[in-house]
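Issue 218. Parser rejects a valid record. Input:
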Amino acid sequence: MDARSIIAGLRAGRTPGAAELGWFAAGLANGEVSDAQAGA
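Output the parser choked on:
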């Protein structure tokens, strides 16, 4: 998984799954996902 694909899915109107949300939250906490990506 990567932040860009999750963000692209959101922009396309797709609802993220539990695994994607968990990965994104963990990435935000450990610095793998940037603040700018979270804001997108």
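Fixed in the parser; the record now loads. Helices lie at 3-11, 18-30, 35-39.
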